[in-house]
Known about the structure:
By secondary structure, the protein is α/β, with parallel strands linked by helices. The protein is 39% helix and 15% strand. The chain has a domain at 12-145: Ribonuclease H-like superfamily/Ribonuclease H (Nucleotidyltransferase, domain 5), CATH 3.30.420.10. It has seven helices and five strands; from the N terminus they run ββαβααββαααα. It has a five-stranded mixed sheet.
Amino acid sequence: MLKSKFQNKLIEAGCDEAGRGCLAGPVYAAAVILPKNYKNKLLNDSKQLSEKKRNILRLEIEKDAISFGVGIVNNVEIDKINILNASFLAMHRAVEQLKVTPELLLIDGNRFKTYQEIPHECIIKGDGKFLSIAAASVIAKTYRDEFMEEAHQKYPVYDWNKNKGYPTKAHREAIKKKGTTELHRMSFRLLPQQLELDI
């Protein structure tokens, strides 16, 4: 069972991102403040859930949360500031959207840049430990997947409706044959070296 809180006194917001390892599209982050002693038996790390369950949970989280916010950093910004800084910035933008100011941020992962002097705790694999971080992982993932599915309509050759921009064999083969789009992250290694030699 995931824990409903890290501590008892402060208003907590769980934060997580989606799309960090992708070759195309933005990185999305979410920040979620859940009611105290919140319970949801389905809620887990978004990677452990089916797409159908994630979409059901997104509606429940949006209805039940005290507040939630979504932050986006596009591929052009990612190329300028690098993906780690882009992940931090997306989380900052998500926290900015909250209608209630959190007093403690629970961050999935081992690193974070402080946001407006709000204390934070970095929790490795936090999306499998705390409900608020799991909720943030579901929100970030579903919003990003939605974006990539829409992008697939414009660029069907890259299979983004299936791979969501991650470096699958089909995605890389399409880059090799068709080149890149305005959504690709040009600072990333888009093709392995052995494929680059063939171009």
